[in-house]
Amino acid sequence: MVLLQILRKLKQKEKEVRILMLGLDNAGKTTIWKKFNGEDINTISPTLGFNIKSLDHNGFQLNIWDVGGQKSLRSYWRNYFESTDGLVWVVDSADKMRLEDCKSELHKLLQEERLSGATLLVFANKCDLPGALSAQEIKDALNLDEIKTHHWQIVWCSAMTGENLLDGIDWMITDIASRIFTLD
Amino acid sequence: MEQSERRGSTTFIIQEESSAGAFLTPAVSISIDEGDEDDPSCPIVTTPVNVDDEGHPTQSSTEAYQSFDTVVGAIEDVAVGSEFQALQSFYLSKYWKDFEGDENSESTHEQFMIFQNYSKEMAHLIETHVKRHLGNDFSFSNFIERWYGTLEEQRQSNNSSINSLGVHINEDCSQEASHQNPTHNFHMTCEIESLLFTLTDFCKFKELMIDYRKMLEGKTPTLSVTHQRLDLPH
């Protein structure tokens, strides 16, 4: 579909950055998404579909997609891969029981052809909870050092307080911009 | 999706009155009876795409500007054509019930799949139509490059119009429309810009669906009665 491809390219020229946020259910994706939008985070229920919002940030237009992560819904993730510039993988750092699941889902995504050009940001969320693993421990548990195919970074954060969210996103945008917008 | 099903929809007329279908309003610069789509004597066909000695489209002559307008004309032509309107009506009338809530509420995977199909079918229709008129060598890529140039120009001439939530062309052009430069023949109508962005922007598509739903449910109750009666088995 030539026309659609060209229209998408045009959007890149608009400095539009498409960010796809995935992760297991209850990782805190929607809380992060709402925090970015400045919305109330006290009444969040599990996401069955997805949320999308456009935000202006540092001269870029960020299109942030927050897609629900329940096991039965993960097969829908592939519908949203197209044109993704940045993949945000959100981890519940206190959910030690599901780290193995978390690792395998992430590495499965990294095999996806349509995500091959995307920058990966791992948010080690809920780091402030008692008993939570540190970002370093999450990095080891998810075998991040094995990733050679994508630019990646892990950042600890708290979606509830908003700590480190901007730092993470800013790193990601800088990385994406250095790949895509170098001609400007 | 049967053609007959689309044509059988009674919402064609409703849809023309819809605010949601604003971009379907025929543009001022084109008249619907300009020529039959399939008629080779149609003015659009007889305007050649400008090419250089090696057959590549020329970039910067007055003729190039005209050929830009020709493409816009061809897209406008398809946008007011019955095939296009039938396809859009089909989507609106079949799927409006799947779009509940407002623009900000959570979207469903089903909505996104409807959007993807809509997008593919509409783009295919436009491409096929434009190529039929301008020849298979016609390059959408060149066209979009030039279009982008005009958008940049517009933005520079009124660069205060970018709002906090997005750099959407529609917002630019809604302001731009009120004080157009009449000598500017390198201008695409807002309707066509909106139309093209509905194809790649899920939020725009969702807005279109929700506006249609609101129209059926609120502003014109009699039409929704008509619609319900259609669903009865007898």
From TrEMBL, chain A:
Pfam families associated with the record: Arf
InterPro entries: Arl2, ARL2/3, P-loop_NTPase, Small_GTP-bd, Small_GTPase_ARF/SAR
Transmembrane segments: none
UniProt keyword terms in alphabetical order: GTP-binding, Lipoprotein, Myristate, Nucleotide-binding
Keyword Glycosyltransferase: no
Keyword presence, RNA-binding: no
Entry-linked SUPFAM superfamilies: P-loop containing nucleoside triphosphate hydrolases
Family under the similarity heading: Belongs to the small GTPase superfamily. Arf family.
Record's protein name: ADP-ribosylation factor-like protein 2
UniProtKB/TrEMBL annotation, chain B:
Protein's name in the database: ADP-ribosylation factor-like protein 2-binding protein
Location of the protein in the cell: Cytoplasm, Cytoskeleton, Cilium basal body; Cytoplasm, Cytoskeleton, Microtubule organizing center, Centrosome; Cytoplasm; Nucleus
Sequence intervals crossing the membrane: none
Family: Belongs to the ARL2BP family.
UniProt keywords, alphabetically: Cell projection, Cilium, Cytoplasm, Cytoskeleton, Mitochondrion, Nucleus
Nucleus is among the record's keywords: yes
Pfam family, one: ARL2_Bind_BART
Function: Plays a role as an effector of the ADP-ribosylation factor-like protein 2, ARL2.
Segments forming domain BART: 68-158, 170-218
